[in-house]
Amino acid sequence: MKSGHGTLTYGGFSIHxxxxxxxxxxxxxxxLNLDGRMFAGKNMKELFPDRMIVALDLPGYGRSDFIPGAxxxxxxxxxxxxxxxxxxxxxxxxxxxxxxxxALDYAIRNPGRLSKLYLIETMIYLPWWxxxxxxxxxxxxxxxxxRNRLCLALLEMVxxxxxxxxxxxxxxxSRLWNNRVNSFYINMMKGYQxxxxxxxxxxxxxxxxxxxSDQSFKMIRKTNYGLQAALRHSxxxxxxxxxxxxxxxxxxxxxxxPNVCSRGR
Length: 265
Prior knowledge:
InterPro entries: AB_hydrolase, AB_hydrolase_1, AB_hydrolase_fold
CATH class: Alpha Beta
Shape: globular
GO molecular function, one term: hydrolase activity
Number of strands: 8
Radius of gyration: 17 Å
Domain AB hydrolase-1: 24-247
Helix content: 25-40%
CATH architecture: 3-Layer(aba) Sandwich
Strand order of the largest sheet: 1-2-4-3-5-6-7-8
CATH topology: Rossmann fold
Keywords: Hydrolase
Largest sheet: 8 strands, mixed
Low-confidence stretches: 258-265
CATH superfamily: Alpha/Beta hydrolase fold, catalytic domain
Number of domains: 1
Structural class: alpha/beta
Strand content: 15-25%
Mean pLDDT: 83
Protein name: Alpha/beta hydrolase
């Protein structure tokens, strides 16, 4: 894919973004402990063959500075700044996992700015076990299993984690667990989940594509079925027999997401 990159400046902090491919711009937000490179792989190229992917490194990830205290409003302003820099009045926005939360919130707050929204493996409810990820013990364990093929193979026996080993082999996830940054976003999600996002999402006016894996985490399935009922113009697309990381690292679906999304409801 053709590539390039650029930077934004926000409050004295530098925020990095990368460009992949050709076509109409698709602004993309990655997940926890990832960066914009996750959108540079073969899967994303096949899912969005006619899009130029504009992948933002969220604050603290990739080549972007960490912005202490940054929340959904700050991320929303970064999205606006990036779209303005690209001279986009209306645009398409995609988010994976954590990035999906920011993408959904942006669509709620800016109903007239998006022409299409893609939410991949997004959850608005935080699983209880994610609080364990804030511990130093988890950081040590993560560093160990992320470098061990046998450990990754054993973890992939959990259906929801299918695709994790390939994510690591493609170096799409960091082999270090940054407690400061990841804990910041996890704690932000803990507070954010208390808001009724299903009610808020009724303000979304653009066409929305909800993509999740059949065997992914329970809270992701709950989120997507809830959003399908709440959103006015949505299409639910389930990836059969796949886990949380499969949309990025697994076998791509037979149809491209733009074609599936065009069906609407």
